[in-house]
Amino acid sequence: MKGFIDCHCHISAEEFDSDIEDVVDNSKKNGLIALVAVAEHAGEFEKIIQLSKRFPGFVFPCLGIHPVQGIHPEEQRGVTFQDLDAALPLIEKYKDQLLAIGEVGLDFTPRIVNSETGKEEQRRVLIRQAEIAKQLDLPLNVHSRSAGRPTIHLLKEQGVQKALLHAFDGKPSVAMEGVKAGYFFSIPPSIIRSQQQKLVQQLPLEHMCLETDSPALGPEKQVRNEPQNIVVAAEYVAKVKGVSLETVMEITKQNALKLFPRLKPFITA
Ligand SMILES: [Zn+2]
Binding residues for a divalent metal cation 2, per the UniProt record (predicted)? Predict the structure, then answer.
């Protein structure tokens, strides 16, 4: 089965409510074979599960609590333990259907967190979710912003063995510590307009995946991103690594299967 696996997207976002059928159709027409749907808060868990049932074998659910909570930009704040409490019964209920725990992580953007206490709360929420992932034998789908080093160090300290670092904004040297720990890094279409080109140069292809983070991180700023744009990230990686698009497609698919073993029955060789 040839095609791209979008290892991190927000297909449950309200931006897709009106035309989800078309978005999924266009994804399939443009070479996608699986969408890994991540959650940000407990309120969208049921919607993600429903989407995975509506598009069986194509949309795969992850549940987890994002380090940034609050839907509208003006109400955004760091995660607290209360946010996690609402999520735990649902993670337990759907544990057998999950591909990973996510989106989890650390976000130390000053607008989101401006105290050591706030950072500590984020760390504790991440540690708890890492423990749950370990108990369920599931990988973590991880966000880190302005917190590349603390995130990778925390994952290693907690003995996390399977993790995807999505849209990593840290230094390539820090990413390489993650590579040594066996982690994967997913590259979004926004790579063509970001400052992270060095990351693609340094990361071995064997530790790279592809993602879109739709509806965010598209090739054009302020334009809704869709899974079909994954080819933009793939072409970029192919160019930097000096390999064919076909090679990037195949190796990133194999990496995604290693990272998310529950995909294997659906993605035949
Ligand atoms: Zn995301």
Answer: 143, 166
Q: What is the 204 CA–ligand 1 centroid distance (Å)?
A: 23
Whole-number Å distance, alpha carbon 237 to ligand 1 midpoint, is: 20
Contact by Cβ (8 Å): 87, 64: yes
Domain hosting residue 158, numbered range: 4-268
Contact 70, 76 (CB under 8 A): yes
Taking each helix axis from N to C end, the angle separating 116-136 and 81-94, rounded to the nearest 10 degrees, works out to 10
With contact defined as beta carbons under 8 Å apart, do 5 and 256 qualify? yes
At residue 268 the predicted structure's pLDDT band, cuts being 50, 70 and 90, is confident
Contact in structure between 204 and 180 (CB atoms under 8 Å): no
Q: What is the average pLDDT value for the chain, to the nearest integer?
A: 96
- Which helix H or strand E contains 14, and what residues bound it? none
User: Total structural domains in the chain?
Assistant: 1
41 secondary structure, DSSP code: S
pLDDT digits (tens, 9 = 90+) for 3-19: 999 999 999 999 999 99
Whole-angstrom CA distances from 70 to 3, 22, 126 are 34, 28, 17
In this structure, what DSSP letter does residue 17 have? T
Cα 39 to averaged position of ligand 1 atoms, centre (Å): 8
- Distance from residue 143's CA to the centre of ligand 1 (Å): 7
Spatial contact of 211 and 187, defined as CB atoms under 8 Å apart: yes
Binding site: residue ranges? 8, 10, 103, 143, 166, 213
Say if residue 239's pLDDT is above 90. Answer: yes
Q: What is the CATH number of the domain that holds 263?
A: 3.20.20.140
